[in-house]
Amino acid sequence: MDLILVNLIDGLVTGLLLFMLSAGLTLIFSMMGVLNFAHASFYMLGAYFAFQISMALGFWMGLLLAPLIVGVLGAGVERYGLRRVHQYGHVPELIFTFGLALLIEELVQFIWGKNQMPYEAPEILQFTAFAIAGNSIPAYKIFMIFISVIIFIGLLWVLTRTRVGMIIQAALTYPKTVEALGHNVPLIFMGVFGVGTALAGVAGVIAGPVLGTFPGMAFVLGSIVFVTIVIGGLGSLWGALVASLLIGWMTTFAKSYNLRMEDLLTWLGFTKPENIWDSAWRDLWTITSPQIADILPYILMVLILIFRPYGLFGKRDA
Amino acid sequence: MRKSITLGVAAALTLSVSSFSVAADTIKIAFIDPLSGPFAGTGVNGLHQYEFAAEELVNKKGGVLGGDMFEIVAFDNKISPKESLIQLQVAIDQGIRYIAQGNSSGVANALTEAIDKHNRRNPEDRVLFLNYSAVDPALTNDKCNFWHFRFDANADIKMDALTDVIAEDTGITKVYIIGQDYSFGKAVAAAAVRFIGEKRPDIEIVGNELHPIGKVKDFTPYSRKIMAAETDAIITGNWGADMLGLGKSVLENGYEGPIFTYYAAADGITAAFGETGEGSLRLVAEGQINPPASDAAAAYYESFKAKYPDGNISQARITNVIEMLAKAIEEAGTATDVVPVAYALEGMEHESLWGGSVKMREVDHQLIQDVHIHAHTGDDITFDYDNSGFGIKVENTVTMAAMDSPTTCNMRRP
């Protein structure tokens, strides 16, 4: 029972981290119809910038400045890169962001090298917040939950309660009309891209000390972010949240409990082949849930695409 | 990329210079390891250690055979077995007789087979394989051959030493084994289960699991499980980001016991663990860095740091490779015919720069040496890793580890 509670908290941390990444991505997609392949690279840049700033000015300045720099960089990419490519259609845009991802990875390796960076959580948060049956929950995790929840509420408030949010939402569906009404739609696009990448930057800043700051960190998270927004429904903030939490809890529970395929198959009424090591079904019978935990979200995505192609909360028609 | 280009240019330059000045007087050693791609850091660091050892231990002392100098020629194999075979052919075509390789047992398996075949077919230009890091036990057992010499302790020997220490610690009654899901991770797990079963049957193995290699984002669920198993010790063969991720996660989540590892040092890992690893991380390896075994060892390390301020001597055995090869060539009286050199290497006893003596076992060409259990610590460290103030210090030593261990090697000698 205690372990369930601990896993719930762990899954929540993973899920919220994923949410910060996918929120920006899903916003950008719903605006411009562009799947930004370089999104996870901005997450990596956030971690590296924060590491560099924290060396000189401490963790908190890193938390403040790194997302800003990443956001400005992202806005610059939109203004001087994507906007130019936009006129040629979606495929060149995809290729552009894909190339950008590769470029950023090489740049990071060029500047910081291939080794792990010693990016640490601040001293003040390096204690155990509380423990449940011997499993300690570090204060830093609570801090991560706290930051992500604030960001979610802030985003929701801006999008639904402010004038800026209304214009953004209007520009999502009727960009031409909004432009005719005298709003600067390209500026809105640039702003959304900047904020989206800044969110990824925040995620990088707070995830860097926990998940490691190394050149492969974008690659490790890159694909799962896309899975999240597909499951949640492209363009839906709530969808991104629900899908992130779902994935967080699903993988956490699958890894912490050794559910065996053998038990499932026996329960379904199959009998285990006598000589399992020579059997063609060996791999199927010996699978355990931790082994497949990381591909469960992909299986879920395939199911979603089959049965509900517009995602859990998506509004678009298939 | 850039590094490999510079290296290539440097290699080309040295080649062209040496070809008209001292062509007859250089003994070339091909260094075939990753110099680009994700493992380039390890490869380049190894190359530096080779170049430095050749310069410092052989060339500055007047070379071998009355003035012949050692030269390391770098070949980038991108850690791919296929690419390695191409590079091997290039090296042989350049007249190189000595092949050094270490990263990845997969590559070593491919090379040892290719070299065996080449030497059988081309008796006039045979080559020797100096394996300095690939630890798959099969290389000195089923797949052994006369041309292959392993200078690192293999995975079984290391686990033997590790379990010696675990067996002596009566406080340990439960052990959790976790590793990456591929051949090496499985070999480590199998060896751990076997040796613990032999030495301390009372120890309960409370967990034995594999995780996907290089794909785990967050190790928290694994560390929860480890905590729930209430284990007294963890054994892992993880390396790179998987080592760091696992180690940091279990420590963060309240684990305080020892973590026995193979590769939890240098290449950024020591710096990233820093304070958190103190008291928990143990590492099994040959080569004593801290405390320095002798003044000579300390002086050697200091001059290495003067030349490569960002480097680490993370593979101490490389000095054994260079020194023993020099000795064998001297003894054989030739560097071009590798058969007498190989016979000289066989059974050779040598005083290691890092303390203790080592012996190249005739029967399987496995170097028998002292294996140490190191602790990751910031106290009393003469030479730190990653300039972090932290390093590894010898805690226990198994002298001449696994000297009488059995081997299935059945060698054919020329």
Shape of chain B: globular
The overall pLDDT average of chain B reads 89
- CATH superfamily annotation of the largest domain in chain B: Response regulator
> What is the CA–CA distance across the termini of chain B?
42 Å
CATH structural class of the largest domain in chain B: Alpha Beta
Low-confidence stretches of chain A: none
SSE string of chain A, helices as H and strands as E? HHHHEEHHHHHHHHHH
SSE inventory with pairings:
The complex is a heterodimer of chains A (318) and B (414).
Chain A: H1 2-32, H2 39-57, H3 59-86, H4 90-112, E1 128-132, E2 135-138, H5 139-161, H6 163-173, H7 175-180, H8 185-211, H9 217-232, H10 237-256, H11 261-267, H12 282-285, H13 289-292, H14 296-307
Antiparallel strand pairs in A: 1-2
Helix pairs in contact in A: 1-5, 1-8, 1-9, 1-10, 2-3, 2-4, 2-8, 2-9, 3-4, 3-8, 5-6, 9-10, 9-14
Chain B: H1 2-20, E1 26-33, H2 40-58, E2 69-76, H3 81-93, E3 98-101, H4 105-121, E4 128-131, E5 148-150, H5 155-168, E6 174-180, H6 183-199, E7 204-211, H7 220-228, E8 233-236, H8 240-252, E9 259-261, H9 269-273, E10 281-285, H10 295-307, H11 317-332, H12 338-345, E11 349-351, E12 357-360, E13 367-368, E14 371-377, E15 391-398
Parallel strand pairs in B: 1-2, 1-3, 3-4, 4-5, 6-7, 6-8, 8-9, 9-10
Antiparallel strand pairs in B: 10-14, 11-12, 12-13, 14-15
How would you describe this structure in keywords?
heterodimer; A: 318 residues; mainly alpha; ABC transporter involved in vitamin B12 uptake, BtuC; 3% strand; globular; B: 414 residues; alpha/beta; Rossmann fold
Explained architecture:
The complex is a heterodimer of chains A (318) and B (414). Chain A has 318 residues and is an all-alpha fold. Helix content of chain A is 73%, strand content 3%. Chain A has a two-stranded antiparallel sheet. The model of chain A has no long low-confidence stretch (mean pLDDT 88). With 414 residues, chain B is an alpha/beta fold. Chain B contains 12 helices and 15 strands. Chain B has helices at 2-20, 40-58, 81-93, 105-121, 155-168, 183-199, 220-228, 240-252, 269-273, 295-307, 317-332, 338-345, and strands at residues 26-33, 69-76, 98-101, 128-131, 148-150, 174-180, 204-211, 233-236, 259-261, 281-285, 349-351, 357-360, 367-368, 371-377, 391-398. In chain B, 52% of the residues are buried. The A-B interface holds A 3, 6-7, 10, 13-14, 106, 110, 113-118, 120, 128, 131, 134-136, 138, 210-212, 214-216, 220-221, 224, 251-256, 258, 288, 290-291, 293-294 and B 1-2, 38, 40-41, 181, 209-212, 214-218, 220-222, 224-225, 227-228, 230, 241, 244-245, 248, 252-254, 267-269, 271-272, 274, 386, 388.
